[in-house]
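Section: Multi-chain targets

For targets with more than one molecule, the full set of components is provided together so that the structure can be written out for the assembly as a whole rather than chain by chain. Components appear in the order listed by the source. The example entry contains two components.
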Amino acid sequence: MIASIIFYVVVAVQLWLISHFYANRVTKNMQHVSDNYSEQEYPKLYPKSKSHYLRIQKLFKVANRTVLSLGILALSVLIYGDITEGYKPPNVAAAIIFMLQLAPFGLLELTEYNYFNEMRKQLHKPTRTSSLSRRSLTNYLTPIQLWLGVILMVVAITSDLLVHQAEEPFLLGMNESALYRSITLVVCNLLMLGIALKNIFGKKPDPFQHDDDRQYQTQQTVVTLFYLCLCISFFFLLKSVLIGTGAEGFEAVATAIYSIVIAYVSVGHRVRCINLTKIDFNAYKA
Amino acid sequence: MEIVINIDDPTPVFTQLMEQIKTAVANNHLPEGTPLPSIRQLANDLEVNSKTVAKAYKLLERDNIIQSRGYRGSFVHPDAKSHCHIDLSQWTTEMLTDCIATLRAKGVTDSEIRVAFGSLMNSKF
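Its structure, encoded as tokens over all components, is:
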């Protein structure tokens, strides 16, 4: 019962945090840009008409409100089922709601990708600049942080394999599902590393962005990806500890808390680190 | 230290890169042993083909301005500053001018010089 109550509270917080609080912060930032930087003075900011971006802003707002309503409805159904019929909330409930909540943010990212492509089509600048200082992953993360990420991943994999060792050995005494989970964890970490390296060495997505702004944005992205890696590994470790100690009842709560932490370090960190007053908008002037 | 290239400039991009790196070394903006950005990083930042940057790096390495240390990347050569003022292109032009002047003095025609130069350049040394 205690696990269920904690679960409902955590899911409610998750709904409020992602679909209301962070969604509003993102909308406010978009609103601030469209209110303070006109299409006439900053034409490079609007590769398509300003009304097109205002429509996207409105759609993002509506999508978040819809997801919030659906989430509240799903949570109510779960609580009702628990009280009347004694159904326990499924472990994946929080993860499904979380995925649904992230959908508008994911769509916004895709729109951003299109936005930068449109910007690039407008790029007719004959002069191009670059810094002559070498960038590397260690400019953004200390070697201790990098080793911490690797060690936590190894500990999580080892712990998961050890906890499930006794169940149906599949390959070299390892359990099949634990082995697949381990592979997933490694692939996830490599994917994050790949995205980080693309941010560090790849073309800058926004062709007009000032180099200092790009540097700051890369720093924040790499740090976010690092925290995500830590969170994923820690979640794997926590799940194996819960199963190992016979506290499977708290698995749903752990998933819900994990969703909140992921939202806090990804969307939250991104929202917190954006300081619109520090961005050099002169780069987008005609 | 920032590098600026102009793609509309008649000077080839790799020459612009070489000149600016040489100037940076000569002005102490890039001291000896300083690590240089990787070819991929510079090509992506300047939005030029990586072969262009590779060519500039190769010529700078030939001129002893930079040195490649395998997987560790490229660094400013320990004697780069003393090599900055050596312009191999200019030296080549001066040598050929002298040679052509000598040949003309001996009565060799321009077309004979061109044919001889062309066949020498096409033959394998």
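Residues 34 and 76 of chain B are 5 Å apart (CA to CA).
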